[in-house]
Write a structure and sequence with these properties.
Radius of gyration: 13 Å
Helix content: 25-40%
Largest sheet: 5 strands, antiparallel
C-alpha cells in the first residue's frame, strides 16, 4: 500500500471525517482521495482549495511571515469544516492535505493534530 493510501486511510478514521485528499497545488490535481459520500466532489473541492492555499502562501510575506510558517487553513461552512494543510517539507513542496469534516461530529483541534502526524507518513 502506498504512503498516500495509508495517509488517506488514517485521516478517514477521524471522527466526523467525510472525505480526504492529497492535492498537488501546482497542477490542481488530487494524487489520491477517499470519501464516505458520493455527493462530496473532492476533485472540485481540491481545485478550489488550491486557490485558497496559493493565495495564503503568496500573501504571507506581505505580513512578514515565511510560507513554511503556515500550518493549516480552516474553512468553516454551515455543515462542514474544510481543513487544508500545506506539506512544507522540501520533498513535498507543492502538496497539501485536504480534509472535509462533518461539523456536528468533528473535533477540528484533534483533526489538526492528526494531520500533523499524517504529514510524517508522506
Amino acid at each position: 500500500m502506498s504512503a498516500i493510501q495509508v495517509a488517506l486511510n488514517r485521516a478517514m478514521r477521524l471522527d466526523g471525517a467525510l472525505g480526504v485528499a492529497v492535492v498537488d497545488y501546482v497542477s490542481r490535481m488530487p494524487l489520491g482521495t477517499q470519501s464516505r459520500s458520493e455527493d462530496l466532489d473532492l476533485d472540485r473541492i481540491a481545485h478550489g482549495g488550491t486557490d485558497v492555499v496559493r493565495t495564503h502562501l503568496s500573501a504571507l510575506p506581505l505580513f512578514g511571515h515565511k510560507p513554511d510558517q503556515l500550518e493549516d487553513i480552516l474553512i468553516t461552512l454551515n455543515g462542514h469544516y474544510h481543513l487544508l494543510r500545506p506539506l512544507t517539507r522540501r520533498t513535498h513542496e507543492g502538496l497539501f492535505l485536504l480534509l472535509v469534516l462533518d461539523r456536528e461530529h468533528a473535533d477540528p483541534d484533534a483533526a489538526r493534530q492528526e494531520l500533523r502526524r499524517i504529514e510524517d507518513l508522506l
